[in-house]
Write a structure and sequence with these properties.
Length: 566
Amino acid sequence: MRKRHLTALALIALLAALPLLAQSEKIDFDAIARIKAEGMQRSQVMELNSWLSDVYAPRVTGSPTYDKAAKWAMDKMREWGLVNVRTEGWTDQRGFDRGWTNDKFYMQAVSPERFPIPGTPTAWTPGTNGLVSGEVVLVTGATAEALAPFKGTLKGKWIMTQAAPDVPAMWQAPSTRYTADELAALEGPQPAPEFGVTPPGQRAAAAQAPQPPPQPGAPAGGRGGQGGNLRNDFLRAEGVLGVISTAPRGHGIYTVGGTRTNDPATTLPAIVIAAEQYGRIARTLAKKIPVTIEADIRNTYHPKPQVYNIVGEIPGTDKADEVVLIGAHFDTWHAGTGAADDGNGSAAMMEAMRILMATGVKLRRTVRVGLWGAEEQGLIGSYEYVSVHFVNRPVPASGAPGAGGPPAAAGQRGAGGAGAPQAPLELKPEHAKFSVYFNIDNGTGAIRGIYTQGNEAIVPVFRQWIEPFRSLGMTTVTTRNTGGTDHQSFDRVGVPAFQFIQDDIEYDTVTHHTNMDTYERLQPRDNIQMATIVAGFAYLAANRDELLPRKPLSAAGQGGRGRGGQ
């Protein structure tokens, strides 16, 4: 009896395994070896990174530097032999009525002692209109009652809008890689939350994690709604020189952001500085000793800039009307040069296309690269691409839920899922011909695996695909979600779209939206590895007999928060 029972179980197991055996992936290991050799031994990715990080940076959407960088990128793609290289303009300006650049920054305390104040203006705020000098006043209140005592006293003053923050030491190493146990936990079931316990595969938030700087005229910690607007209006009416903010990062690191819809006529100059200088000034003021700051800040507005994405492609053969897409966001913030966010993603995607061209591997489907604008304002560029190519639907207002997902605040990774698809989705013909989108936007860290966004059907495919790259450190396939970047724009309309699992390195602790996001923070070997793996995955997707399996449309767009879908 027991023997018959075991035999029946074995038969059931065999029958269950047959579909997987029948779906075994065809992998041309010779072609993969050529891709790996070209990518790992003759990489140009760090040279591409240098052009994007040292020469054509920062790239705030709508700025002249974004345009210069786009021309350079397109010229480079054409040099490699890509075709249909072009810009794709958006359906409207999406709130980018003006571009913005910071063209000069000088700030220094001149009394009671002289010391330099490194800092960066908040995007889309005005400059000082020449050299100005004034005392500093701490104004933390935002209600009419709290502001009343300052009436008539603030003309020509600099305003600090928050108390000096406490700055924690770096108790934990700021740079980390996934451990084998953490990667294994990602492949397991997602644990239910338990009070005070960090789930396996997810790291606790670092004490030095970035915080968004206050927006102009807002209380510390955010815009502050009506109170922030009230204070902004009050300070403008008083004739202040500008507002100065910080965050409890310390160690000379600060984050920046900005609001593209700021009206220059009603916006105050706003500067973010490091906590060390901010704290020194605040503590001096607490001793009843005046502090005077002089500054010369020149910010330039560029009316009605062109707003667009950049695309190029390698045409396929017998399945040329079907598309494999790889991409990253081309725009950056401006305190650093955007090397890790997301210059290295853009460079890796360009390098992946170069690898495919240099090796001459056969591609049945067309492989296209997309470099997106305005990811930092809410995934706008990738959402525009999806709206043009895949679906007909009412276009939400920029920054609204549904416009590619809520924008990530400065210094905040994985701002949330893009939400469920709008219903009904009117699909365009390209939707049925689209195979997959692969995205990179989590810093310089090596690829360790891939999130499948709950797409159970694709797991056995990816498990076979990663085998040729296991020696490069890619080992993990997880059904969990990750959020906060451009793959969500595609996922939410029901096409396969994926972000790779990457080592953090210093992304959350040092580089994300900060003044430290520069070429020096990149890890060359990691960038070489990521470009090679992307090229390999694009090749495998392009040559598969069938399109990659999709989730049911009703299940699309369920992106999570941050690492591991939390």
